[in-house]
Design brief:
Elements (H helix, E strand, L loop, with lengths): L4 H12 L3 E3 L1 H9 L5 E4 L5 H12 L7 E3 L4 H8 L5 E4 L2 H16 L4
Parallel strand pairs: 2-3
Antiparallel strand pairs: 1-4, 2-4
Length: about 110
């Protein structure tokens, strides 16, 4: 299964708008400063990284949504220009739109 192509396109737009933090240190810094509205992890992110980001996103009452994408670091890199296993979206509008697209993708089931 693949991510919605609109989602990857939005990631690129978000990066160009300066509302995306790419990479471990930038993403954790964004979460800790409470500027992150959504955390996205690549499908090939390590379990250690996933647990660390989930812990940071929920620490001290933060309720930042964390989602693991179907896309790997290569696809995220093509969309954003930076190869990274974790990115944070630092804009409420982009985050809501992406969560909506993720919900549509998750509802599709194949029997």
């Amino acid at each position: 299964m693949n991510d919605n192509p609109k989602l990857l396109s939005l990631l690129g737009m978000c990066r160009r708008a300066g509302k995306l933090s790419c990479g471990h240190d930038a993403a954790v810094g964004s979460v800790r400063s409470k500027s992150a509205k959504l955390c996205l992890l690549s499908s090939d992110a390590s379990q250690r990284l996933i647990k660390e980001i989930e812990r940071e996103a929920g620490f001290e009452g933060r309720k930042i949504p964390v989602r693991v994408l179907y896309s790997g670091m290569e696809e995220i890199g093509r969309a954003t220009g930076l190869k990274s296993a974790v990115v944070t979206v630092n804009d409420e509008g982009f985050a809501k739109t992406m969560l909506g697209l993720l919900a549509i993708t998750e509802e599709v089931t194949y029997d």
